[in-house]
């Protein structure tokens, strides 16, 4: 039986990818301003701005964002996390 190769993730690098994905999805939805997106989806504008800057995000907040984008978790992580 082959041993699985260990993957070492860097949290900062992954947060940058997460931020880029969040921003790309917002723009795909036609929002040029993160503030309008946040307002339309009942998300704190300041907090949403931090998500797009790559600051840490709670899992429950990520789920709220994924729901706002109207996609599944699988769809969210299908792009930008190679």
User: Roughly how many Å apart are the termini?
Assistant: 26 Å
Low-confidence stretches: none
The geometry reads as elongated
Give the number of DSSP strands. Answer: 0
What is the element string, with H for helices and E for strands?
HHHHH
Instruction: Give the CATH superfamily.
Output: lambda repressor-like DNA-binding domains
Structural class: mainly alpha
Q: Can you tell me the CATH architecture?
A: Orthogonal Bundle
**CATH class call:** Mainly Alpha
Number of domains: 1
Average pLDDT works out at 93
CATH fold-level assignment: 434 Repressor (Amino-terminal Domain)
Task: Summarize this entry quickly.
The chain has 82 residues and is mainly alpha-helical. It is 57% helix and 0% strand.
Detailed description of the structure:
This protein is mainly alpha-helical and 82 residues long. It has one domain: 434 Repressor (Amino-terminal Domain) (Orthogonal Bundle), CATH 1.10.260. The protein is 57% helix and 0% strand. Helix 2 packs across helix 3. The longest helix is centred in the N-terminal third of the chain and has 18 residues. The two termini are 26 Å apart. The mean pLDDT is 93.
Short key terms for the protein model shown above:
82 residues, mainly alpha, 434 Repressor (Amino-terminal Domain), 5 helices
Layout of strands and helices, then pairs:
Layout: H1 11-28, H2 34-40, H3 45-52, H4 59-68, H5 73-76
């Amino acid at each position: 039986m082959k041993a699985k190769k260990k993957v070492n993730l860097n949290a900062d690098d992954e947060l940058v990818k997460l931020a880029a994905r969040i921003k790309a999805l917002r723009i795909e939805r036609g929002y040029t301003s993160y503030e309008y997106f946040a307002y339309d989806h009942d998300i704190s504008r300041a907090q949403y701005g931090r998500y797009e800057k790559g600051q840490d995000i709670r899992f429950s907040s990520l789920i709220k964002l994924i729901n706002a984008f109207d996609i599944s978790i699988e769809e969210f992580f299908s792009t930008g996390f190679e």
